[in-house]
Amino acid sequence: MSEVVNNEAGRRFEITVGGHTGFLQYAKAGDRINLLHTEVPKELGGRGLGNVLAKAALDDARDTHLSVIPTCPFIKKFIERNPEYAPLVAI
Length: 91
Prior knowledge:
Layout (H helix, E strand, L loop, with lengths): L4 E3 L4 E6 L2 E10 L2 E8 L9 H15 L3 E4 L2 H9 L10
Parallel strand pairs: 4-5
Antiparallel strand pairs: 1-2, 2-3, 3-4
């Protein structure tokens, strides 16, 4: 499987498979990262790439000591299903 890349200039985490790119858009402000929108092309659907993007973004937030604002509904659900990421959520 392809590797997730943090495209800082585009403010999104990206994964490209077979010429198609899925992404997780974000905005950073101070010590917080707002995870805004996750999108996986239909050509890549059913492969769990949304989960791969979510995990990469949340792991990066943990590694860089950022609090997470889970605006994206997919990210909210991912955190509910993976409670080890709950402590990252900004209060």
